[in-house]
C-alpha cells in the first residue's frame, strides 16, 4: 500500500530540506504556525524516520532533533556520525565524517548517537 503524500507532509518535508541544521518538533511547530498541529508533526517526523527520509538525534537536552537524510533508504538507514550543537546559537549539525566503532566480537551495532557541544565556526569568531 503506497503512502499518501499530503500537503501537511510536504510542508514538513520542505521545511526539513530547507533547514541547514537538525530541527526539533518544537522548531517546526514555530515555523509552520497553526498550519499543522503538534501531534501531526510528531507523527509525520516518526514516519519519515521509518521511511529513511530523516534521522533522529537525541540531543544533550533530552529532546529529539530531526535531520534530512542524504543517500538513505528504509532498508539502509545508518548514521554513524557525530552531531554538533553550538552552545551560543543552539544549531545542531551533522558532522560529515562517519565513525567506525569497533565492537567486541559477536556484538552488532544498530544505532549510534555521538553528540558534541561547543562553538560553531560562526560563533567562535567572536572569541
Quick structural gist:
The chain is α+β, with helices and mostly antiparallel strands. The protein has 3 helices and 6 strands, in the order H-E-H-H-E-E-E-E-E.
Report the uncertain regions.
none
In N-to-C order, the SSE pattern is HEHHEEEEE
| Number of separate structural domains | 1
Mean pLDDT across the residues is 87
Major β-sheet annotation: 3 strands, antiparallel
Question: What oligomeric state do these chains adopt?
Answer: single chain
Measured by DSSP, the beta-strand proportion falls in: 15-25%
Supply the CATH architecture: Orthogonal Bundle
Q: Find the count of extended strands (DSSP E, 2+ residues).
A: 6
CATH-level-4 superfamily name: Winged helix-like DNA-binding domain superfamily/Winged helix DNA-binding domain
CATH fold call = Arc Repressor Mutant, subunit A
What is the rounded distance between the termini?
54 Å
Fraction of residues in helices?
Answer: 25-40%
Number of helices: 3
Which outline best applies?
A: globular
Pairing-aware structural class of the strands and helices?
A: alpha+beta
CATH class: Mainly Alpha
Strand order of the largest sheet: 1-3-2
Amino acid at each position: 500500500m503506497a503512502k499518501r503524500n499530503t500537503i501537511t507532509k510536504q510542508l514538513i518535508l520542505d521545511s526539513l530540506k530547507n533547514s541547514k541544521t537538525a530541527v526539533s518538533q518544537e522548531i517546526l511547530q514555530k515555523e509552520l504556525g497553526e498550519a499543522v498541529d503538534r501531534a501531526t508533526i510528531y507523527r509525520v517526523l516518526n514516519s519519515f524516520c521509518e521511511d529513511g527520509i530523516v534521522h533522529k538525534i537525541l540531543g544533550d537536552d533530552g529532546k529529539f532533533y530531526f535531520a534530512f537524510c542524504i543517500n538513505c533508504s528504509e532498508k539502509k538507514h545508518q548514521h554513524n556520525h557525530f552531531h554538533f550543537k553550538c552552545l551560543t546559537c543552539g544549531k545542531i549539525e551533522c558532522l560529515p565524517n562517519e565513525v567506525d566503532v569497533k565492537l567486541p566480537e559477536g556484538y552488532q551495532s544498530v544505532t549510534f548517537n555521538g553528540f558534541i557541544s561547543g562553538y560553531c565556526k560562526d560563533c567562535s569568531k567572536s572569541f
